[in-house]
Amino acid sequence: MAISVSVALLLLILAVIFIRSGGLKTSHAIICVLLGFLLAGTSAAPTIHHTLVSTANMINGVGR
């Protein structure tokens, strides 16, 4: 859960930076958020979650 919150916070900060710099339009950000919610309700959600957790574990293991 802590990884999910950290990733969500990081992505939110990046989205705000991109919106303020003009690199990401608000409408594009809203579409990406809606796509995320739709993907969370599909059968692909466990695979996506497993991939993100595996990647986070791999990155965590590199620093040791």
Automatic annotation (TrEMBL):
Domain of life of the native organism: Bacteria
Protein name: DUF2304 domain-containing protein
Membrane-spanning segments: 28-48
Keywords annotated in UniProt: Membrane, Transmembrane, Transmembrane helix
